[in-house]
Design brief:
Blueprint: H1 2-18, E1 24-25, E2 39-43, E3 47-48, E4 51-55, E5 58-63, E6 77-80, E7 88-92, E8 95-96, E9 102-110, E10 124-130, E11 135-139, E12 150-157, E13 162-163, E14 165-169, E15 179-187, H2 193-217
Antiparallel strand pairs: 1-15, 2-5, 3-4, 4-7, 5-6, 6-15, 7-14, 8-13, 9-12, 9-15, 10-11, 10-14
Length: 218
């Protein structure tokens, strides 16, 4: 009986260890601070909490208007990478990472070109790159259909103890094709010997539980 309980407990531990931790919001990843009013244009070199404007031109920090008919679920501010001119973006403050650890970034995105200029933009929309990581480009035709909210993902392997994220407009004009919000990041768990052992023991634990149940009611 003691051995059976040990195996069942080990199986449960393997399942628990194999579950991944929830994503953590990057500092001001929802662009909610400071409150900028209906809209605020930020030129290159400007900063808001957790972010610096880079590139050329500038970006807009926009407030979701009520009633909101184009980005349901967002109730605060978001980042319009296209600004008034296109060509700019934002870079996050450096955050701690573990070299050789893989991370996944998720963020909400919307191609708002139907709001202005009023026609669907199907070309390049925005890009994302972690320092030392690959460059990912998101397109208005395949990744960001106009007017359809998306949750986009990006993966990278850290190369240093700190990392930054850089989002850039790639449309090149005030297309409104690159709206982003709720930037979050989490480490991708790697299988450990304990996880592997736990997963291997799960069927044995289930079999023992069935046997114990049968013996109990026999």
């Amino acid at each position: 009986m003691k051995l059976s309980k040990s195996i069942v407990i080990a199986s449960m531990m393997g399942v628990i260890l194999a579950s991944s931790a929830g994503a953590a919001l990057v500092l001001n990843g929802d662009f909610a601070a400071p409150i900028e009013g209906p809209a605020a244009f930020l030129s290159v070199g400007s900063t808001i909490l957790g972010w610096t404007v880079v590139g050329s031109g500038g970006v807009n920090v926009d407030h979701v208007f009520t009633p909101n008919t184009y980005w349901t679920g967002n109730t605060s501010q978001f980042m319009d990478l296209t600004g008034n001119t296109g060509g700019a973006g934002v870079q996050s403050d450096a955050f701690a990472t573990i070299p050789l650890q893989t991370y996944q970034v998720t963020f909400d995105a919307l191609n708002g070109s139907l709001v202005f200029p009023g026609s669907a933009w199907t070309g390049p929309a925005l890009s994302l790159q972690a320092s030392g990581g690959p460059l990912a480009n998101y397109n208005g035709l395949t990744d960001l259909p106009a007017g359809v909210p998306q949750v986009l993902t990006y993966s990278f392997t850290a190369v240093s103890p700190t990392t930054t994220l850089t989002f850039m407009d790639t449309s090149g004009f005030d297309s409104n094709a690159g709206w982003i919000d709720n930037v979050a990041i989490q480490a991708v768990p790697e299988p450990t010997p304990m996880m592997i052992l736990g997963a291997w023991l799960v069927p044995f634990g289930a079999r023992i539980l069935r046997t114990l149940r049968k013996n109990r009611f026999a």
